[in-house]
Write a structure and sequence with these properties.
Distance between the termini: 28 Å
Largest sheet: 4 strands, mixed
Strand content: 5-15%
Structural class: alpha+beta
Number of strands: 4
Length: 207
């Protein structure tokens, strides 16, 4: 038995795919079309009423959602992969802080900005305003994160799962060109992470 990941190409599920690949842990992937995600998802309605990816069914049959929770569980299973700094490590607190920041502050800007009619109905003006405001807020968050980024990895010398998040998010709005110009440290981290062979294989699968 292996864990099963419900995924959609190019979405947040690739963060989990990359983490599993780096940990060299088997993973069964079920790809969904984007039209089969969200509140009306037929494939996920019994597993995750929000219809979001990643959604995971563990090898024991338990449903897990929320990428940060899945990452922390994976680290419990594969501590030698060092995706999460160990308790007592100098970067442990920073890791936990920025993991939750990415999951709870940055990621929701896509939740509200990607499918605007879900929140403001069919008013084109309201949809445009919501998309623009969430995009602008996200840029502010990334600019703040840039001031906290180390090199060559976000936590400095130690690679962590934070780098897999940045590798994925750098490809989403506002896009790689913006990151290169406005957040060069995050851009470099994303590129270095994407060049790691296990991650490169995952990225190639997203196309």
């Amino acid at each position: 038995m292996t864990d099963t990941l419900y995924a959609a190409k190019g979405g947040g599920s690739m963060i989990i795919e990359a983490a599993y690949a780096l940990a060299k842990r088997p993973l069964k992937i079920i790809d969904l079309e984007w039209g089969d995600t969200g509140w009306a998802s037929k494939s996920l309605k019994d597993l995750n009423p929000l219809g979001q990816v990643p959604t995971m069914v563990t090898e024991s049959g338990e449903v897990m959602t929320e990428s940060a929770a899945i990452i922390l569980r994976l680290n419990d299973l594969e501590p030698m992969a060092r995706l999460v700094p160990a308790p007592g490590h100098p970067t442990r607190n920073a890791f936990l802080r920025w993991l939750v920041f990415l999951a709870s502050a940055v990621y929701p800007t896509f939740t509200y900005g990607d499918v605007t009619d879900r929140w403001v109905g069919n008013d084109p003006g309201a949809q445009k305003a919501l998309r623009e405001s969430t995009d602008a807020h996200r840029k502010q968050l990334y600019s703040f994160l840039e001031t906290k980024a180390g090199s060559p990895w976000f936590l400095g010398d130690e690679f962590s799962a934070l780098d897999t998040y940045l590798c994925a998010m750098e490809k989403w709005r506002p896009g790689p060109d913006w990151f290169k110009a406005e957040c060069p440290k995050i851009s470099a981290i994303a590129k270095a992470t994407g060049a790691l062979p296990p991650v490169a294989t995952v990225l190639a699968r997203q196309r």
